[in-house]
Design goal:
The protein contains 10 helices and 10 strands. It is α/β, with parallel strands linked by helices. The strands form 2 sheets. The protein has a 5-stranded mixed beta sheet with strand order 2-1-3-4-5. Strands 7-6-8-9-10 form a 5-stranded mixed beta sheet. Helix 2 crosses helix 5, helix 3 crosses helix 4 and helix 7 packs across helix 10.
């Protein structure tokens, strides 16, 4: 009987011991999880607050509603992950409240009320087929530190019914590029579904056609006006794939020229000094030129990528290739291949 009681007590004690370790394990796990949560919470990045103080829309975008710009900027900040916008309605309500209370209600006062890290001004305008965004960021004590950024985007969407521009994608893209420049972080949108980086603006200028009348006639040279335009247009279409350059199309380029009273650009000639001056005045940073030269083996196309500098011009890259036949199909293949190499599109 005593043996039975002794065994019973041992079993009870064993069960108690198991329960003790089980409860200890649960307690330890809960404590670890709580510490983990607290640590993660302390390590979490607090979003930087941005107050939109002004949205300025140029006369060429008079049909654009500012709320679309606000929405594009909000979407841009969402993709950037580190920023949080002060809602415009909330800012307006606070401004009114401060006025009603007889308190100062300037832009700085509203920004300070929300403890905003940045005050932002957004300026948008359009020139023919190109969207330009300028972002101005104010930060620091009393928001006296100023940073600016400019971003461009090609407007390549139109309504299929009334052919009006569909601005939304271009607004967002130009804002992304401008904002990345303003905060000095070129990789800010590198993790977006479609990565976006700040880019240099670029234009395809004239490509000089150099025929040789001693060689058999080629239609590619005989019809230099048509084929030089085809060459420049093909370069533009292929160059649009680049994520390092934002290309102005030929309509936009020609409109730049026309503002300086150059109404008939000759695509089969190298750009003259006045054409380059006009591009520079419109803040075009780089351009493509080159030669298409007839030779005994057929013809050689050379493309040159150059950049405007304070000293003048700097050659960034140069590529060449040959065609053996007077064929527009072969000509197009060569143009595409050389454009890819010049801009390193497939790298």
């Amino acid at each position: 009987m005593n043996i039975t009681k002794s065994l019973y007590k041992k079993r009870i004690n064993f069960i108690k011991l198991i329960l003790f370790f089980f409860l200890l394990a649960i307690f330890t796990e809960n404590t670890y999880c709580q510490k983990n949560k607290e640590q993660n919470k302390s390590n979490a990045l607090v979003p930087l607050k941005i107050y939109i103080a002004g949205i300025d829309i140029g006369k060429e975008l008079k049909d654009l509603n500012p709320t679309k710009v606000e929405a594009s900027f909000a979407f841009t900040m969402l993709m950037a992950k580190y920023f949080d916008i002060v809602p415009i309605k909330s800012a307006d309500s606070v401004s009114k409240l401060l006025k009603d209370e007889g308190k100062p209600s300037t832009i700085l006062d509203v920004a300070k009320y929300f403890k905003a890290n940045f005050i932002v001004y957004i300026n948008l305008n359009r020139f023919v087929d190109v969207m330009r965004c300028d972002v101005t960021l104010l930060s620091g004590k009393d928001y006296i530190s100023k940073n600016t950024g400019t971003g461009y985007a090609y407007i390549n969407f139109r309504d299929s019914i009334d052919t009006k521009f569909l601005y939304d994608p271009s607004i967002t893209l130009s804002i992304q590029r401008a904002f990345a420049v303003a905060v000095k972080d070129s990789s800010l949108f590198a993790d977006a579904p479609k990565p976006v980086f700040p880019v240099k603006t670029c234009v395809t200028t004239g490509i000089e056609f150099k025929n040789n009348n001693d060689l058999p006639r080629w239609s590619l040279f005989e019809e230099e006006v048509v084929n030089s335009f085809y060459l420049c247009e093909t370069i533009f279409q292929e160059a649009a794939k680049s994520n390092q350059y934002m290309f102005f199309d030929l309509d936009t380029r020609d409109s730049i020229y026309s503002t300086f009273k150059f109404y008939a650009p000759e695509n089969y000639k190298a750009p003259n000094q006045m054409e380059l001056y006009a591009l520079r005045q419109f803040e075009v940073q780089t351009f493509i030129t080159g030669t298409f030269k007839r030779d005994t083996s057929g013809a050689t196309l050379t493309l040159i990528l150059a950049q405007f500098t304070n000293e003048g011009l700097t050659e960034l890259n140069r590529v060449s290739g040959n065609i053996l036949t007077d064929s527009k199909v072969d000509f197009k293949k060569l143009i595409i291949d050389l454009t890819d190499k010049l801009l390193k599109i497939n790298n």
